[in-house]
Write a structure and sequence with these properties.
By secondary structure, the protein is an alpha+beta fold. It is about 45% helix and about 15% strand. The N and C termini lie far apart (about 65 Å). The protein binds beta-D-galactopyranose.
């Protein structure tokens, strides 16, 4: 066995470089020899070449390796990646792609994260990535529009045309069906094993992630759909406490309306925001099992609870800002900031927005009335298109998305919580009070899937559901809308 001399500097833990160790050769060696010495297998030579060349692009004391079979001289400095990364590299690398051995290049990240909180969270994830892979240029390919309805319409043709972003945002759950993953995406099962994600993600989420027997995305977070946000200053002024039932909610609405305050602010310019509210109302009138059953065919959409939920939605719409069709979820929050609007029902990305605008001090939260103990959940993941132009850069990105470091940096700004289960009490304490309480609810509550954010149903059904609710806002026709929802379920489930 060849002798190699190790420099006693471990920088992986400092968090500013790809995890690994520098190695200075004490005699001429080939990459295969080094791989054999370090990993007990000569086959990791390409991973060492890539890791070293990535380093050399930003630190000229590292060797620039030009060929896989090159013999490097004594004194050459290499970067030995962690064994897990080296394995993952071999799992992803196509040996016909010699260009992937040289480092650098781009990473095109597709998402719809453009608003307050979203942009900050994404930037934190980018910074984690940059700290590990400073040789790579990140291209932030966002398409604005909450819940991704615009983004999805833009990204799909690109994927089909063979020109996808390197990686893109995808909700955990049945949303993946709309991407024909067997054709266009790379299954990530091997990366789950190598990086141990199958051990640190909750079993329910793992199950949600598996489609046709494979994992197609790496989750960065858990979001909660059913949160009622309230303006603490307005509530204090009128002596109100957060409602736990719809009766209490409407009593509060009356008080506020009479006082000239908008009781519940809504923006529906994206067309998904009121349907989002409706999924929470459904979860409030049905039991968790009944709600879940709506999406599996076990609960008929003729259930009286559906009509009740529509009646509640109709009543809620009497207490909103009249210009709700012109606002998105976040622009509507201007009423909240100006103390002109008191409540908002929205997923907890709203907390990311409040934090970004530095008004979180005046925000209170409670479960949507009638949903205490129920957590309507969704998760954002990143997928790996088969035709990604920079596959090795995607590998590093997914590694960051699944990492503790990445998830903590991202979620404390995004208003979501890490998907990983191994967050320590000290790490939890870095999150704000809402997020800490959300972590507790996530561990304790009954989890049901969000429909508007990809977890519960395939995209075609989500769109039918969304359309039926948007039409309802015009017709206010409970029976007709319920019939449309029945038809949508039939079309999706075939029964
Ligand atoms: C959801 C997404 C969240 C949040 C929200 C508003 O679909 O999962 O991360 O960004 O849309 O855009």
């Amino acid at each position: 066995m060849r002798k190699v001399c190790w420099l006693l500097v471990v920088v992986g833990f400092l968090g500013w470089a790809q995890a690994g160790t520098p190695l200075v050769l004490d005699k001429p060696s080939s990459l295969a020899d080094i791989s054999l010495t370090v990993f007990g297998d000569p086959g990791y030579a390409p991973a060492i070449m890539r890791a070293t060349n990535s380093k050399a692009l930003v630190d000229h004391t590292f060797a620039r390796v030009t060929r896989l079979d090159e013999v490097l001289p004594a004194g050459a400095k290499l970067w030995i990646p962690e064994a897990s990364w080296a394995k993952a590299f071999l799992a992803v690398w196509d040996s016909a792609r010699v260009e992937d051995l040289f480092g650098g290049g781009k990473l095109v990240v597709g998402s719809w994260w453009t608003t307050g909180g979203e942009a900050e969270g994404l930037e934190a994830l980018f910074n984690t990535y940059r700290s590990r892979y400073p040789d790579v240029l990140i291209v932030n390919a966002t398409v604005a529009g909450g819940a991704g309805f615009v983004f999805k319409a833009v990204v799909k043709p690109r994927i089909i045309a063979g020109d996808p972003p390197d990686t893109f945002q995808l909700h955990a759950g049945l949303e993946v069906e709309g991407y024909s993953p067997e054709v266009y995406l790379r299954p990530l099962d091997d990366l789950y094993t190598i990086f141990g994600w199958d051990k640190v993600l909750p079993p329910d989420l793992l199950e949600l992630m598996r489609y046709k027997g494979h994992y197609w995305g790496v989750p960065v977070n858990i979001h909660r759909s059913n949160v009622l946000w309230y303006n603490k200053e307005i509530f204090a002024q009128y002596g109100l406490t957060p409602p736990t039932s719809w009766d209490e909610f409407f009593t509060i609405c009356e008080t506020l309306k009479n006082a000239g305050v908008i009781p519940i602010i809504i923006g529906n310019a994206g067309g998904w925001e009121v349907p989002h509210l409706f999924e929470d109302v459904l979860a409030s009138v049905l039991s968790p099992d009944e709600y879940r059953g709506l999406w599996t065919g076990e609960t008929p959409w003729t259930h009286p609870g559906v009509a009740r939920a529509l009646e509640i939605l109709k009543r809620i719409m009497d207490y909103t800002n009249v210009d709700y069709p012109a606002h998105t979820w976040d622009t509507a929050l201007d009423y909240f900031v100006a103390n002109k609007g008191a409540m908002h029902i929205m997923g907890d990305w709203a907390m990311g927005w409040f934090m970004a605008k530095q008004i979180d001090y005046k925000v209170g939260w409670a479960p949507v009335p009638g949903t205490k103990g129920v957590f309507v959940a969704l998760s954002d993941t990143f997928a790996f298109p088969k035709r990604a132009a920079n596959p090795i850069n995607v590998l590093g990105w997914l590694e960051v998305c699944g990492s503790k470091e990445g998830q903590i940096a991202f979620n404390m700004r995004k208003g979501s919580i890490p998907a990983r289960t191994d967050i320590t009490p000290e790490e939890k304490a870095q999150f704000n009070l809402y997020l800490q309480s959300c972590m507790e609810d996530w561990a304790r509550d009954t989890i049901v899937p969000s429909v508007m954010h990809g977890a519960a149903a395939p995209e075609s059904w989500v769109v039918d559901f969304k359309d039926a609710i948007n039409l309802f806002l015009v017709t206010k026709d409970v029976a007709g809308t319920q019939a449309a929802l029945v038809a949508a379920a039939k079309a999706a489930l075939g029964k």
